[in-house]
Specification:
Elements: H1 9-35, H2 42-67, H3 75-93, H4 96-121, H5 125-144, E1 149-150, H6 157-164, E2 166-167, E3 170-171, H7 172-190, H8 192-202, H9 204-209, H10 214-240, E4 242-243, H11 251-262, H12 273-292, H13 297-323
Antiparallel strand pairs: 1-4, 2-3
Helix pairs in contact: 1-12, 1-13, 2-7, 2-8, 2-10, 2-11, 2-12, 3-4, 3-5, 3-10, 4-5, 4-10, 6-10, 7-8, 8-10, 11-12, 11-13, 12-13
């Protein structure tokens, strides 16, 4: 006898739950391919991928925090402080290693402060990380007086290559992004660290009783978020060719959007590196495609916010139906 394929409503719901967001991304790509001039050209796609690289790297750090049940509101404001640190040291010394180390040190300091406030002192994530972000605004404005500093023409070439260089036709930031996606995927899915981070995010009390040091692992996630923010900010500074105190402020909204989209993908219900990668791709497509169509920037914010709301609503409804 031929076995019948079940095409009932449950199967359709399960398919939508696992692949609905990916399908949406495909539809967005098709839409812009038709209506946005030059969207399908190699140059346009490489520009989008380079823009996506910085968002993806920041969002990977945010993925660590959110997987542990946390939230990091400091990433947008702190990016500017890292930006002027990297750019300032590079301009002053013309040496790439001290500039990178200084930038990473600032990112880790921000992550450490967030982790101590949230995990050890017990301040709610939103309040603690938001306050740290505000503090970084004051520090970067104190240092820079709000003024950008541009790279001189004889700046260390590696400092320019990080954000503007290419390997063949592929921008270096894209290669860096892909390498970090693979690395974070390995950490989250194949190591004890990743499993414990997900365990903490799933149930902090049960994790504590199971012998996991919840405070320690929450602190680690904020440190990793600070490290990823440092890498993305270094790329951004190099790409701009200047130390800009306001650069990177858009990271927060787009990062939240990308990671929330991640939680709706593949039926996971939790942020994953691959989901974050796809989420960042969708958000970058929306921004780039709408720009190519000449849509004003304020409509772009409305669109991205609406996409996140609809995605989360769809995930909640589908999950409820599956459980029911």
């Amino acid at each position: 006898m031929t076995k019948k394929v079940n095409l009932g409503s449950f199967d359709m719901i399960r398919f939508a739950r696992r692949y609905g967001t990916v399908l949406f991304g495909v539809l967005v790509f098709i839409f812009f391919s038709i209506f946005a001039n030059n969207f399908l050209t190699l140059n346009a796609q490489l520009i989008l991928l380079r823009q996506m690289s910085m968002l993806t790297i920041v969002a990977l750090g945010f993925t660590f925090v959110m997987a542990a049940g946390g939230f990091d509101m400091s990433v947008g404001n702190a990016a500017g402080l890292i930006n002027i640190t990297f750019g300032g040291v590079l301009i002053a010394t013309n040496a790439i290693v001290p500039a990178i180390l200084a930038a990473v040190a600032v990112g880790l300091a921000v992550g450490l402060t967030n982790g101590v406030l949230v995990a050890y002192i017990g301040i709610p994530d939103f309040i603690g990380t938001f306050s740290v972000g505000i503090i970084t605004v004051g520090i970067k404005m104190l240092i820079s007086r709000g003024n950008p500093t541009f790279f001189p023409t004889d700046i260390n070439p590696i400092g320019v290559f990080i954000g503007q260089g290419r390997v063949g036709v592929v921008p270096f930031p894209v290669i860096l992004m892909l390498a970090l996606v693979v690395l974070v995927y390995f950490i989250m899915k194949k190591t004890t660290l990743g499993r414990r981070i997900y365990a903490v995010g799933g149930n902090k009390v049960a994790s504590q009783y199971g012998g996991i040091n919840v405070k320690k692992y929450r602190l680690i996630t904020f440190l990793l978020s600070g490290l990823m923010l440092s890498i993305a900010s270094i790329v951004l500074t190099s790409r701009l060719g200047s130390a800009q105190p306001l650069a990177g402020e858009e990271f927060l909204l787009d990062t939240i959007a990308a990671v929330f989209l991640s939680t709706t993908m593949f039926g996971e219900g939790e942020p994953t590196p691959l989901g974050t990668f796809v989420g960042a791709f969708i958000i970058t497509m929306l921004t780039g495609g709408l720009t190519m169509m000449g849509v004003p920037y304020f409509y772009q914010y409305i669109t991205k916010g609406s996409v996140v709301i609809l995605s989360v609503m769809l995930s909640v409804v589908l999950n409820a139906k599956v459980k029911g």
